Each structure stands twice: as structure tokens, then as C-alpha cells.
Amino acid sequence: MPRTPDYFKGKTLILTGAASGIGRETARIFGREGANVLCADVNEEGAAHAAEEVTERGGRGAHVKVDVTSRAQAAAMVERAKKVFGRIDFGFNSAGAALRRTPFLEIPDDLWERTFDLNVKGVFYCMQAVLPEMLAQGRGVIVNMASMAHRRGGPGHSVHYASAKGAVVSMTLGVAREFAARGIRCLSISPGPVETPFHAISPPELKAAQLADIPMKRFGRPEEIGELVLFLCSDACEFMTGDTVYVNGGGGWR
Q: Which of 28, 31, 26, 24 is nearest to 8 (CA)?
């Protein structure tokens, strides 16, 4: 939670991956705090529903269809936020996925490239689009979605995804250090398994192994990650930048 009452009221968040899961819950949470939220997703209908929920909870919601693997669409997303809300204070790059589970020796070029396009290039384009606006106003916070997978490597099923999320962690650190003296904070979040639509279709044996490794004996909930995004963007941790925050119920280290 923020240190200052009504800290988020009237401030603007650009949120990718807003149509479902962690993105959708984060939109609701920022709406509860009275923020403006531009809900962006390739699923335009889902993004529109998320924007409606922002408004219902006391914020101002708007939506835009965006494919984050397109530099032009990422730039257009930022322009829409400026046009609708007049300012941009926060960015949460939540869009990403492993696309499919595949053993390492069976990962084809196409899957590797599409995984990096979505998870790495998408974050790269969105940060390059929004940073000039934040630099012009002398402050801003960017939160990127990484994963506990980058510490484990994804053996047996998602080395492509783990590698991409490792790149996100490194890129976050680089941007944080490059722009820290100019008022920009940049952080990443590395969750363990979270109850999202993607996790729901994981093989039962994989979910059982993941659960056995979590001392709290449950998976994370999307709203728990959303509350962390709120905290990271708030004035309660203004000395924090460059880090990735692990949220995994005590597990994920084996």
C-alpha cells in the first residue's frame, strides 16, 4: 500500500496483458485506488471488460488492442494513454507466456523466436515507448513480469521460457541503473506458480511437482501479485529499483 493516502488517485498506469490473470486483477486493484488504467491486450474484448471494471471500482478505465511484439503498436498504446489521461506514471508489462511446454531437444526455432518476441521484445518495445514520457516528467515506475523459472531453468518443459524471463530480469536491471538518477525506477517480479489460465492447462504431474516444492502448500493467486505491483509503484519503497521480487510461497529453489 502507498504511504500517502490517495497516492494513486489521478495517476496513470499502462497495463499490458490486461485481459486475464495477473493483468486483470492488477487493473481492478489500481481501479480500487482511484487510478487511471489503460488496459492493453491482444484480446480487445477482454481488455475492454478490464477497463470497465477499473471504472466500476472508482478509477478511470480505457482500453486498447495491442500486440506488444509490434513496435508501432506499443508506441500507439502510449500515445492513446497520453491522449485519454494526459499523463503516464506507471507501466506494468504483464503480457507474456511460455506458449507451450516442450522438452529442450524438441524446441523448434519458431517456438524459441515467438517466446522471445512476446516475453522479451514485447517488454523492450513497451519500455522504449514509455520511457521518454517518464523522463520528460522526471519520474516514473516500470514493473516487468519475470518468473521464478529464470532461477530454475525450466528443465524438461520450458527452457525457452526460462531463458526469456532471464533476459527480462537482466534488461530490467540495466534500465533501472541507467535511468535511476533521472527519477525512473524499474523492477521485475518473479512469481512461482500462480493460478492463471496458462497454469490451469499445465500437465497434472507438473502441477503436483510444483505444489510439492512449495512450503505453503498452495499456488499463488493473481490478486497477490497485483497487490505487489501496487506496492512497488507506490511511495512506500522509493529506494527500491533494479531488483526482481520473488513471490513463491517459499518454494521454487530446487
A: 31
The alpha carbon dihedral of 202, 212, 153, 17 has a sign of: positive
Residues 6 or more apart whose Cβ sits within 8 Å of residue 247: 189, 190, 191, 192, 220, 224, 225, 228
Residue 220: beta bridge partners?
A: 194
Are 133 and 78 a contacting pair, CB within 8 Å?
Answer: yes
Per-residue pLDDT reduced to its tens digit, 90-118? 999 999 999 999 999 999 999 999 999 99
Q: Which residues are catalytic?
A: 161
Half-sphere exposure of 64 (CA within 13 A, CB side): 21
User: Which cell is 100 given?
Assistant: 507451450
Q: What is the pLDDT of residue 196?
A: 78
Instruction: Note whether residue 7 is domain-resident.
Output: no
Residue 152's alpha-carbon distances to 97, 162, 182, 192, 225, in angstroms, are: 16, 8, 34, 10, 20
pLDDT at 253 exceeding the cut of 80: no
List pLDDT tens digits, range 16-61: 999 999 999 999 999 999 999 999 999 999 999 999 999 999 999 9
59, 127 contact by CB (below 8 A) = no
- Domain total of the chain: 1
Domain span holding position 81: 12-244
Residue 102 falls inside a structural domain = yes
248 closest CA partner among 168, 151, 134: 151
Domain of 187: which CATH number? 3.40.50.720
**Which residue type is seen at 56?**
E
